[in-house]
C-alpha cells in the first residue's frame, strides 16, 4: 500500500482506468531504475516509446565498454535508445516522440526546465529516500551512515531543483542491522517499482494531488568519490561500523598502512556488528582478540570479518591472519 503525503492519509485510492495508452519516455542509467522500467513495460496502460540513458562506459578491471543496465533492458524489449552526453542535447528528439509523461530514475543529471515542460503530465522521479530528508546522489549511503531506523522511496513530480519537486507518494521500509548500502539499494529499487504504477495512474487520473516539500528539513548529500571511503579511525567504533556498511559496495571503506616502508591499501569489507570495549591500542592499529582480527577505533574496537588487500581478491579475516601476520600492530598512515 502506498503511503500518501500526510494530508491524504486515510483517503482510499481506487485504481483508475485510463482510456488510452500513456506514451512514456524512461530516463535512467543504473540498476536502480531497472525494476521500475520492467514494471512499466509489463503494464498495458504504458507505452514505453523511448529510453534515454548514459553513453556506454568502460567498466571492470579490463575496462570493457559496457552499456548501462537500463540500456540492456531496453535492448531486450526492442525499445529505441538515446544516449546523449548531456540530456539537453536530446530536446529535439524528445519533442518528436511527443511523450505524455517522462519517468526518471537515477540518471545522474539534472533535467532542465525545457524538458520538464514537454510532457502533458510532466516528469516524475523515483528517489531513493523519504524526501525531503536526503536530497542528492548518496541518499542511500546517508541513511546507513547516520544510523537511521527507516528509509524508503519517494515518487515526486520534478521541478528544476535537485529533488525539490512536490511529492506524489512515499513508501518506507526498516533498515535492518547489517544492511549495507548495496543491500538497501536493491530493496529500494524494488520498492520504487512497486510504488510507481499505482501512483502514476492515480496522478494521471487526477486522483492524487502533489504535495510541496518542507525544504527546511532537507539535507543535501553529495556524490561520493573514491577517497570518501577512507576510514577515520579516531571516530567511535559504532560510527566506523556504520561507515563500512554505508560505503559497501562502493566506494568501499579503506585504510592505508605502512609495512616495511611500503604503503599498502586495505579495503575493509565487513566487520561484526557488536563493538568491543577495548581501548588499549593506538587508533587504527590491528590486533588479535581471541584469535580474531580486530581494529582499534577512537572509542572501542571492531572485529573484522572480511577484507581485501590492494590488487588481491577479497578474503576472510582468518585467511588474512594466515598470510599477512605482519599487519598486526602496523602503522596507519
Order of helices and strands: EHEEEHEHEHEEHEEHEHEEEEEEHE
- The count of helical stretches stands at 8
Q: How many strands?
A: 18
Poorly predicted runs: 4-14
Strand order of the largest sheet: 5-2-1-6-7-9-10
Rounded mean pLDDT is 93
Helical proportion? 10-25%
The proportion of strand residues reads 25-35%
- Per the principal axes of the C-alpha atoms, what is the gross shape? elongated
Distance linking N and C termini: 50 Å
Structural class: alpha/beta
- What would you call the quaternary organization? single chain
Question: Your description of this structure?
Answer:
With 333 residues, the protein is an alpha/beta fold. The protein has eight helices and 18 strands. The chain has a seven-stranded mixed β-sheet, covered by helices on one side. Strands 12, 13, 14, 15, 16, 17 and 18 form a seven-stranded antiparallel β-sheet that branches. A two-stranded antiparallel ribbon has the order 3-4. A hairpin with a 2-residue loop joins strand 14 and strand 15 (292-296). The radius of gyration is 23 Å and the shape is elongated.
Chart the SSEs and their pairings:
Blueprint: E1 22-28, H1 34-42, E2 46-52, E3 57-59, E4 64-66, H2 69-76, E5 81-82, H3 91-97, E6 101-105, H4 113-116, E7 123-127, E8 134-136, H5 139-145, E9 150-157, E10 167-174, H6 181-204, E11 219-221, H7 237-246, E12 254-259, E13 262-271, E14 286-289, E15 292-296, E16 301-309, E17 315-316, H8 317-323, E18 331-332
Parallel strand pairs: 1-2, 1-6, 2-5, 6-7, 8-11
Antiparallel strand pairs: 3-4, 7-9, 9-10, 12-13, 12-18, 13-16, 14-15, 15-16, 16-17
Helix pairs in contact: 1-6, 5-7
